[in-house]
Amino acid sequence: MGLGSQTPGGIPTSAWNGDRYLEITVGGETLNPRELIRSVPIAGMALTVPDGAIGTAQIADGAVSTTDLAINAITSGQIADNAFSTSRIADGAVTQAKAPYLAAAPWNNRLVVVTTWVGHTNSSGIATVDISSYGFSGIDSVVVSNGDDYAVARGVFNVYDWNTAQVQVRCWNINGTLLANTLLRVNLAIMGTH
């Protein structure tokens, strides 16, 4: 039998204000000594936390740091689209070593961008890569290559069309079949004016 199990709702928490002792009587005789009841019985109330009981309001600002997170605990699936903007990324936080497939180097009004696009081609085997965010005012040249073997280890890619907003790359399998509606990774190097 648990202490307080015969009391509807259990022992009220107000009963624990001050020292409390347990006294046992057997056959009309009180056994000695009485035992001080310590706070351990109350711990039974906090064995678990109900699911959903802790939300952002219960977590103090700065209470969770990067050292509190398991490696790979946060993936792209947990990050909302457009959650990060340039104002939220510290200057110098993203380096070439951390983003080896992305580089933008302006000089003398010239801009070279090296980037990787991952996505599906359309029904004509064309991958459309949005480059509008780089701010090109003109494009001089575009070089493309097969990024890896998402769908084809030996695909053939060529630049189909470009302007300052997008580059279109047509993709074939090595046997000459268009890679329509196919997931691909395309590497691009784009040079133009800024």
Question: Could you explain how this protein is built, in words?
Answer:
The strands form four sheets. The protein has a four-stranded antiparallel sheet with strand order 5-6-11-8, with no helix packed on it. It contains no helices and eleven strands. Helices cover 0% and strands 34% of the residues. It is elongated. It has 194 residues and is mainly β. The chain has strands at 20-22, 25-26, 29-30, 35-37, 103-107, 110-120, 126-130, 138-146, 156-162, 166-172, 183-193. The termini are far apart. The mean pLDDT is 79. Among the domains are: 19-46, no CATH class; 103-193, Immunoglobulin-like (Sandwich), CATH 2.60.40.3940.
Care to give the gist of this entry?
The chain is an all-beta fold. Among the domains are: 19-46, no CATH class; 103-193, Immunoglobulin-like, CATH 2.60.40.3940.
| Broad structural category | mainly beta
Q: What's the multimeric state?
A: single chain
CATH class of the domain at 103-193: Mainly Beta
Alpha carbon gap, first and last residue: 80 Å
Molecular shape: elongated
Query: What letter string, H or E per element, gives the SSE order?
Result: EEEEEEEEEEE
Share of residues in helices:
under 10%
Number of contiguous helices: 0
Average pLDDT level: 79
- Residue windows where pLDDT falls under 50 for at least 5 positions: none
The number of E-state strands comes to 11
Radius of gyration: 33 Å
CATH fold type of the domain at 103-193: Immunoglobulin-like
| Fraction of residues in β-strands | 25-35%
The main sheet comes to: 4 strands, antiparallel
Q: What CATH architecture label of the domain at 103-193 applies?
A: Sandwich
Identify the strand order in the major beta sheet: 5-6-11-8
